[in-house]
Amino acid sequence: MLDLVHVWVIRQLTLGEFASRQAVLSKAVLMAAKIAVFAYLLNILGHLVLVAFGLLPYPLLPALVVATMLTPPVSFLVAVLAYSVVGLAIYDLGVSRQRFETLSRTDMLSGLMNRRAFLDTFEQARGPVALILLDIDRFKSINDTLGHKAGDDVITRTAKCLTEAPGAGEVIARIGGEEFAVLLRGQQTERALQIAESIRQSVESMGLAVGGRPISVTVSAGVSEGVAERGFSELFSGADRALYLAKASGRNRIVHAKQLVEASLDASFPDDAQRGAGLARLSA
Fold first, then answer.
1. 12, 99, 149, 243: most buried, per Cβ within 10 A?
2. What is the pTM for the complete model shown?
3. Catalytic amino acids?
4. Does residue 168 contact residue 162 with C-beta atoms inside 8 Å?
5. Are 229 and 126 in contact (CB under 8 A)?
6. pLDDT in tens, 31-90
């Protein structure tokens, strides 16, 4: 019997997590009502025990009337206040934790996923996936000639183009200074290329002006496909090499990893150590 009472009390005192302040107050009222009833029953039981041993110094009936008038409202009020204070503190801590988690997984400039969040999401993916790597063309020149404020504007506007691209989904990240990535689940080659082309066209036509001076912004992209279970490195390597070819072929274009042939690899790409630099930047 005592064990059952102990378990019940612990269950009632366990607050858990709350979705809102209203939920805290609702829980506090419910728990306080249970505590008031429990306290009232204990009070009555205590009086009966005292009567049984002849220790009650006053008549039982008036004592029960006083207990009925005082114990439930007082215990209810105290319990509501205590539960509300503790519950609101738990709620505020939960909100702060969620905000911190969001900040730790978000790129502050673009509002997209950061590198860590993107890699974590990939680890949870299963089955066929496609990766689109995008890089803003001649971004260093924009920073050097127009200033870092212009560079920041280019990044934020490019990020908006990615999030508004039809079919891009929610797994979109800024993985480097001017580098972005889109992870597509279960996508076929044609669909992945369509999404990449949609992003490229959107960036090219976004019409950005700095200080009243229009500037041209374009992106190059590499697309690669594979199976998520085989790991990120292989998928990234193909997309990174395709992106390099897109840059070397004149920029503002999309290249699929399937377009890479041995002859073009030997002629157009640096050695393996240099090609692995992109993966090192992402994995670091």
1. 243
2. 0.65
3. 178
4. yes
5. yes
6. 888 888 888 898 889 888 888 888 888 888 888 888 888 888 888 888 888 888 877 877
